[in-house]
Fold these 2 entries.
Entry 1:
Amino acid sequence: MKPVSGIRSSALLLACALLAACGTAEKPEKAAPLYKIVPEEHVPTSVAVSIAQMKFQPDTVRVHRGDTVVFTNNDVVDHDATALPDSAWTSGPLHPGQSWKLVADSTSEYFCSIHVVMRGEVIVE
Amino acid sequence: MKNKTFTFQRGAMLFALSAFLYVGAFAQDAPKLSDPEIAHVAVTANQIDVDYAAIAKEKSTNKAVLQFAATMAKDHEGVIKQAVVLATKLGVTPKDNAMSKSLKEGEAKTEKMLRSLKGEAFDKAYIDNEVTYHKAVIDAVKNVLIPQTQNAELKNLLVSVEPVLESHLAHAEMVQKEFAKK
């Protein structure tokens, strides 16, 4: 065995030992974050629809799922708000001064089944 | 049979047209009416459409016609109730007058015509008359009753009723268009 070879193999062993030591060394701990990122949650809100002068005012409302749409009959005759095309939901007859709440679940067009020319839409975004 | 139906339909149109011209003439001449007279005209005009709706309920089997008639009865009865409550509150006794009388005369003729019809001829005549009648009443409300009413609350009631009449007209015209497609 030549002396040179002995030195080279020793160096290789040392390098391996250093690498092994580096691999097992504990990593320094990261500092705890000062803030936490959380998904933005929508706080349910309420939107008013006035029924007056034979119209839904406004006739289109944009809401988020879970928001409440409050229909109030401010007209001189009875009205209702009924989902199109299959009456999936309906307020039933609302006398002047009465209100009814819809918790918006999905986009739907609606009409007054008493006065079929009155139309509106709830758009869930 | 076709000729008979056509004659009935033409007759219905003529009756409706004459009623329209009669009330329209009032609007143009703008007779001077007191508040008690205006209250009487308002109640009479509403009651006439309730009466027409009762005939439709009795004679028609058409779903669209029956639905329209039910709305007319409900809305006009509601307006009459409000007018009576308001008149009572104001101490106003509705007073018969020339305009109310002409409306009642028109009703008698129209009722006779409607009762002489049946089936689709009745449905069409009823809806045609509703279109014409509402046009005439809207004209009278806008051009005679509202401008001449002195009491603010009575005026407000008439103003708030006008969109109801406009909506009835749009509804009647919608049904009328459906008949025209047949």
Note: The radius of gyration of chain B is 16 Å.
Entry 2:
Amino acid sequence: MNRLQRRWAIAIVGSGIVVGGFFGLAHVRTRSANETPRLLPLASELEGIKGAYLYFGAPGADSLVSEYRDVVVKDRPADQVRAIYRELLAGPSKGHLALFPEGTELLEAYWTDKGTLYLDWSKALTQGFRGGSARERALIASIVRTAGENLPGVDRVMILVEGEPVETIGGHFDVLSPLSVRDWE
Amino acid sequence: MRRAGLLLLAAVTLAVSIRVALAVQDAAPIAVLYPDPQPQELIRPILLEGTRYVSTSDVARIFRATKYWRPELRKLSLRFGDHTIRFTVDAPVVLVDDTARNLVQSPRLLQGQVYVPEAVLLGLTECGLVSNATWDDAARTIRFRSPVHTVRQAQLWVRGRVTEVSATLLKSFSPRLVYATPSEIRLLFDGGTLDSARAFSGGAVANGIIQETADGVEIRLVLAPGAQGYSLSVGSSRLRLAVTDDQELVQQGIFSKLEPIAIGGADGKLRTIVIDPGHGGKDLGAALPGGGAEKDATLDFARLLRSELQEKLGARVVLTRDTDQNVSIQRRAEIANEWGADLFLSIHFDAEGAIRSGGVRVYTLPASSGPGGTERLPLSLGAEGGAEMHPWESAQSQAAGTSMAVGQAIADALVKSYPQTSITFRTGRLGVLEPVACAAVLLECAPAPRGAEAMSLQGYTVSQIARIVAQSIQELARGMRS
């Protein structure tokens, strides 16, 4: 066997190992997957990804449109709420209308076992709002419907600004008491 | 040796072609059919090792499930109402609620997206996780069922001098008679749903419509001149609303008399009207085209309307603010109640949404109004028919039907004058109207359209709008006296 023949032999054996390993590993992987039907319990305090419907304004109309988006959330309900509303505050991605006044932040979120979600917003929500009844209606509906759609068990939403109830956001609609999800569908 | 080389080349080529064949390919799309009017859509599964897989994002979106993905555990949950299905990537087992079930193929993770075998779609319906849709395996179609409606098959019958609207009710359902005047009847099924909207006319009904609104199912009958009485009966599964122009049927007590709406005193005279120019002071309201502020436009309009109403009705007209000052919503309602107003008109301006090119929105509280869906009973003072005290925040609920009649009359008058302009009548939980004890309407006008828009939309001026609003109130007052 000359040097060239030896090189060819090494190449053939090497290739055989690569190809064999390729299929062999795939087979082993499938088998190992098939042999582990046991499921582990969900861990807590870990991040996950949640598909969420977010509501934004429809340009030139008095209605809302929804966008489906993956949102990174944590296990605690309050963290989930914050993550979903952070995404809503980030605005639309498909030419729809952003409804929140510039600089609005969600400060806190509380969730009672009676189905009322308390959302505590920064002052910019009321101080920065410049719009008519259609925009205000759309903004409230966006907040309430986003909760109703993505947070099972929430049927009323209470809007607070810096920890206090407010009578209105833009001078038209009453938000002093909890808003029923059904009324804003 | 060269032969061995060729063999190796063939082996490698074969391996590569097998891997390519096993790689991800697009599979034929799945049609998703929704009930009218929502258009159908297509979702695109993938073909992987001969099996069709669908994305869990598509499954969650289509069936409105809550998806939750744990990348570090490679676990994905889909929550359908009270039920949950849990997948683990590369494990051929799923947990449906707390029961383990086998999968023929395992869920796969591709480019950060979890895919499940298409057969899962059948499992979702068979396990009862999805009840409003079916999976047709042969046609590869997801078909959503039409929702079961509470009000169905509305029809109009004309029998001699009686015109009847009937509908089938799914359950025992009490409608609310919002108002019944000689010109119009309005009925509302709170929270009801309707199979399909219908418009009809005939006999004593000049123009009738049954439609689903934000508040439920609404029947609105605009009556032909001469209508005298109505009768409403609701059985366990049938609604009958009849109208007649035969006065004898009313006198015999078979039909109830259609009464004009009452917004004034006992003599039908409008004595005090309170006009509320929205916003003011630091509260600028909406930014209007041309740089104007809503607070200034509302005050100008309120002054115009005050002149028109004083001239046409001779009524006392009070403004909640006559200067550029901020008045709280509660105080605005207080002013109306302190003056014992017969009518309250709140004025707003906007130039967005449906009225961006001109138009008017007319709002009242819904007939079923009660803050947050709660209704509190009035408190009676004294057993001898003394005064009734109504909860402040729901004072308007006593007059909500009358308010809707007034709001509709104003909207109709505006539509008649400007048929091409966006004029809508709707209900909403408006803070300024809730504590007002008399008929109360909120008008939101768009500034007068300019240029080409004004030409194409039969442009109006704000003073013309004020005149038409005043005229429609004058006509209501005349109707009350007659």
Note: Residues 3-34 of chain A form the longest helix (32 residues).
